[in-house]
Design brief:
44% helix, 4 helices, globular, 95 residues, alpha+beta, two-stranded antiparallel ribbon
Length: 95
């Protein structure tokens, strides 16, 4: 399965609302978010800019990897069926 094409702004919104990075480093070209469960940082992800441009799989696959998601799960996260709770459970299993 391949990653669908999403707008950068939609991927950004998904990361900020569902992955809920605790710390966000706003320096540099792109923000970097740190996802923490308990006292442990389990993922660091590049947060895309708020552009309406389409992000194709050749770039979004790196964000999926940073979020520790398969391509299928990345699509589910962006298409809304996967909640924050389900995402955190996947993160715990992969850590």
């Amino acid at each position: 399965m391949k990653i669908k094409d999403y707008k950068e702004s939609d991927i950004r919104k998904t990361i900020l609302t569902k992955a809920k990075p605790v710390r966000i480093n706003k320096g540099g070209k792109h923000w970097k978010g740190y996802i923490v469960i308990g006292d442990t940082t389990v993922a660091k992800v590049k947060i895309p800019n708020d552009h309406p441009r389409i992000m194709h799989q050749d770039k979004s696959k790196y964000i999926a990897r940073d979020l520790k998601l398969s391509y299928k799960d990345f699509n589910l996260l962006n298409d809304c069926p996967m909640t924050r709770t389900k995402y955190y459970k996947k993160l715990v299993k992969s850590s």
